[in-house]
Amino acid sequence: MSSLLVLCRFVHFTMVLMLFGTWVLGPLLLGRGASHPLLHQRLARISSGLTSLALLSGVCWLLLITASMAGSWPAALDPATLQLVLGKTFFGQVWSWHLLLNFLLLGVLLSPLRTCLPLKLSLAALLLATLAPVGHGAMLDGLPGQLLILNQIVHLSCVAGWLGGLMLLSLLLLQPNPASMEAVLRRFSGVGYALVAGLLLSGLINVRVLTGHWWPTPLFSGFALILLIKVLLVSAMLGLALLHRLRLRGCDRRLGALRNSVLLEWLLGVAAVAAVSLLGTLPPMQTV
Amino acid sequence: MSLNKLITAGALLTSLLAASSVFAHAHLQGSTPAADSVVTPPQALRLVFSEGIEASFTQVSLSRDGAPVALNGLATEGADKKTLVVTPAAPLAAGTYKVDWHAVSVDTHKSAGSYRFKVGQ
Fold first, then answer.
1. How many CB pairs under 8 A join A and B?
2. Which residues partner with B96 through β-bridges?
């Protein structure tokens, strides 16, 4: 049950992060509509796929949580138990809105409204925001709890921008005849500094609040180990990002190598999301 | 953003960071009657957890010398989702009681435990 839940969390987080990230950085990296018409079409198809998968994994997440809370598999499909989860628990109340937003977004993407970026972007932002209170974000009461959730929204937004941007760059580079990348990379690099700074700072705040330390110990068990793996993955991403930045001048002469290393950086990011999906189900501190 | 707002935000953030270590899964922090205590018959049992719990999915069973004791129900106290109040169906007779709890915290995690207390004459 718990490994299925980890898988669901991973798929769902990845889908929502990519949706928000590609839409928020789309205008900056791709321009509006006129340039790259084929890529815009492709991205529209990808977005519909991501939204459908997000809805599917979101519903599975609800069913798995219901089964886990009730302590039995059949409870997942029992309407009365589902109603109890949706109506009476904090998770359920947040998740009702979350699934409704996801459903609305799918409706928008299947209707003529799909070209309206502000609408899609606001729905994706709300989808991302309703993801923040689920998990450890819910564990504090009152103002500290709300600040922790706000911190998580900042963290998720920065992660989404970074990973969504990398996905757009990968799509640009995977085109049959990629155009000049130097200007695009320069623009991404500009926001990249802010995104990375935001995610590192909010991530550090998260760890400090959840575990009571800047770095939890023992280092090689449970929560701390997965956190270590995640931090190593993000460090590798930062290394690649720095490399891309330093070799930016003249990058158009080695687009093949650039494509591979951008894809690698994106995959490392997705792996970090996988690690965090597991992290969210583990207790931050061992009981004493 | 004005300087004042910045300072307020900074102070709030600092207080958040200074908060003592917290556990993200609900643990029993205390109870009335306390674990291993000898008490006069209590009206209700109160279990205080380290974080908010979902009363709809939290289970508590009470047994006296191995035999189950009927309970009227359990509920959290108003806005305080950390305190669970368990009311027995009838006044508790003298004997040794065991409380078994299975909690689901507001962040959907599960935890469980048990403790004993004694009702004297």
1. 91
2. B118
> A28 is written with which tokens?
């900056």
A205/B23 touch (CB, cutoff 8 Å), yes or no: no
Burial class for B84, CB neighbours closer than 10 Å (0-12, 13-18, 19+): buried
Which secondary structure element, helix H or strand E, spans residue A25, and what is its range?
helix A2-30
Total domains in the fold of chain B: 1
pLDDT, residue B97, reads 95
Distance CA B12, CA B6 (A): 10
Contacts A70 to B, Cβ<8 Å: 57
Buried b (16+ CB within 10 A) or exposed e, A58-96: bbbbbbbbbbbbbeeeebbeeeebbebbbeebbbbebbe
Instruction: Report phi then psi at B105, rounded to 5.
Output: -80, 165
Segments forming the whole domain that contains residue B103: 23-119
Write the pLDDT tens digit of every residue in B80-102.
888 999 999 999 999 999 999 99
Residue A238 structure tokens: 């930062």
Q: Is residue B86 part of a domain?
A: yes
In DSSP notation, A161-230 reads: HHHHHHHHHHHHHHSSS----HHHHHHHHHHHHHHHHHHHHHHHHHHHHHHSSSS-SSTTSHHHHHHHHH
Residue B19: list chain A partners with CB under 8 A: 140, 144, 209, 212
Q: What are the backbone dihedrals phi and psi of residue A233, each rounded to the nearest 5 degrees, phi first?
A: -60, -45
Which CATH number do you get for residue B84?
2.60.40.1220
**Is A177 an interface residue toward B (CB < 8 Å)?**
no
**In whole angstroms, what separates CA A137 from the centre of its chain?**
15
Question: Is the Cβ pair B102, A71 closer than 8 Å?
Answer: yes
Q: What is the ipTM of this complex?
A: 0.72
How far is it, in rounded angstroms, from Cα A16 to Cα A273? 12
Shortest CA gap A283–chain B (Å): 6
Q: Which residue is closest to B59 within chain A, CA to CA? A: A70
Provide the 3-class DSSP secondary structure of residue B88.
strand
Whether B117 has a pLDDT exceeding 60, the answer reads yes
Interchain pair B22, A65: CB under 8 A: no
Classify residue B6: in a domain, yes or no: no
